[in-house]
Write a structure and sequence with these properties.
Blueprint lengths: L2 H38 L17 H6 L16 H35 L5 H13 L2 H15 L5 H25 L4 H8 L4 H30 L2 H6 L7 H9 L5 H28 L2
Amino acid sequence: MGARDVTTRLGRHLGRRALGAYGVLFFAFIYAPMVIVIVYSFNANPINMMSWTGFTFDWYRTIFGLGTKLTEQTLYVESTEQLTNAVGNSLVVAFTTTAISTAIGTMTALAMARFRFRFKSFYRVLVFMPMIIPDIVLGIALLIYFVTLGVKLGLITIIIGHCTFLASYVFIVVSARLAGMDQTCEEASADLGASPWQTFRRVTLPLIAPGVIGGALLAFIISMDDLVITYFIAGVDSTTLPVFIYGMLRRGIKPEINAIATLMILFSLVVASLGLWFRSRSSR
């Protein structure tokens, strides 16, 4: 074995080690903050979050209004009713937005993949624009639009605002599924006398179902977590959970915030697990 071969193997070995170390550091950089939030959500210290004084479930009991005996100095959640209303508003917005944006994104993806029309490339660029525009710019633009039309800010404006950019996410996911789908099944269905609606319902929709479900779950999670756009177009009585948490953060990082963040992480994991489960069932 020559010196050149030894040098090549040594370089490959060091490259693999460096790549592995980079992967570990990358995932640590992403997930370490979440681990810290989860751990300190059980910290008994009500004043200094970073000073561990013991293990407790008091902050979770406070969130669910289970009557934990805390002093006014340690109680930071203004009321469980406000938190419950914020969660309810977020769920209403997320479910409604998911249904609307999934329908719009799926129909747009089918139109782009199956039909030819003028300015098709231009329309495709327009679909991507809401994802490219910064959230703060889109939020200000929507606020000016609603104020100009005299629309009262509330859950309706939040739903409209979320649909403007979440339909683009669904469009991308469904388009990727359509790009890898064999069109011969649709052609065979048409040759056998099926109408376009029957072909869509019995052939096309089952084939693109994983993409539709994936896009819907993605839209749901993004809608639940959106803060910037929602902050601009939310009304007085339409506070969502991210806006509620932001209001709490303005008074400092409190133990209840860590507990709420931990529950949101758990909820996101459940939704992601459901997506993987549906994907595994559809691939059988």
